[in-house]
Amino acid sequence: MVISSSARLLRPVSLLSTRPSWTNRELAGRMEVTERTIRRDITRLRELGYGIESDPGPWGGYRLAGGARVPPLSLDDEEALAVAVALREAALSGVLGSDQAALSALLKLRRLLPQRVAARLGELDDAFVHTARTDAGQVSTGVLLELASACRGGERLRLSYRDMRGRDSVRDVDPHRLVRTRHRWYLVALDVGRGIWRTFRADRVTDAHPTGTRADLDDPPDAAALVARMLLSDYPLYVTIRVPLGMDDARRLVPPHRGSHEPDGPTGTLITIGGTDPDQLAGYLLGLESPLRVLSPDTVRAALRHRIGDLLDLNDTD
Fold first, then answer.
1. Tell me, what CATH number does 302's domain have?
2. pLDDT per residue over 188-238, tens digit each?
3. Which of 30, 146, 175, 236 is the most exposed place for a label (fewest CB within 10 A)?
């Protein structure tokens, strides 16, 4: 059997992944090439970053080990489909956080999938039904990937968008970043017609088409901060607290989708948190289980003292 050198080069990787060790003779016999060819292919794979170890002597063998960097992967159709489905679910669920790693990897993989595998993935997309949370809409994977591709490529998009009142509009936008909150994806983009930076909920984008025009991203904003400010604007009441933590630790204590952060010296951070009423905010602050000082308003400070007083009374042993 004659196969191309590039295809043959990845065949040992596939074989080595099936069992702990292979001898040179076994690999040569399975691939129907000479042992010298196997040694040359193993050397080339090591240069590409594959961690392949070998034991000397006539009974020695080759085995896979960890490489210094991520090398190219050899996936069959079923494996490629499984990886694509897993990446899609990770992107939609946000299980890996908001760094868009799963979405970026899925975007790269879908461009490389053979047509037969891409068609099967499309069939799965049509068959799967997700039960959305009551507070979160369902975003189309295709739309999400189109938005991510435009952000990566810096290309202007024509969005078909439905706002919170159900009104449909079509607008040109220059996409900057996709931001993942706990439950939703938001597109941060410049609304070209209005000349202002906006946030668009991805689940409200009904269609997105590239226009072929380069996006004009002059002095773009902090995308995460813009989304955080937008989310905070929906609350009738806000509390500002100071915590004795640096910015990174403060963001882990109160995530950006829940509050806005401002450094206050080298060891402190001011956090503004939105809520429905003083008692609800006091309960949230207690749940942080962290030292903090309420700077404003007095109503939240009073509600917090009241809750703490009730806890002390309930635990009074006298």
1. 3.30.70
2. 999 999 999 999 988 899 999 999 899 988 888 888 888 877 877 778 889
3. 236
CB atoms within 10 A of CB 113: 18
C-alpha distances out from residue 16 to 29, 33, 81, 237, 316, Å: 14, 16, 21, 61, 67
Asked whether residue 93 is domain-assigned, the answer is yes
Composition of the chain by helix, strand, coil, percent to 5: 40, 25, 35
DSSP state of 202: G
Euclidean distance between CA atoms 150 and 171, whole angstroms = 15
135 domain-assigned = no
Give the pairing type, strands 237-243 and 259-263. Answer: unpaired
Give the residue numbers spanning the domain of 102: 77-127
My answer on whether 244 and 210 are in the same domain is no
Q: Residue 257 carries which side chain, given as an amino acid letter?
A: H
Q: Are 234 and 201 in contact (CB under 8 A)?
A: no
Burial of 152 (0-12, 13-18, 19+ CB in 10 A): middle
Same domain? 242 vs 308: yes
Whether the model clears a pTM of 0.90, i.e. scores above it, the answer is no
In one-letter notation, the amino acid at residue 126 is: D
Domain identity same for 123 and 149? no
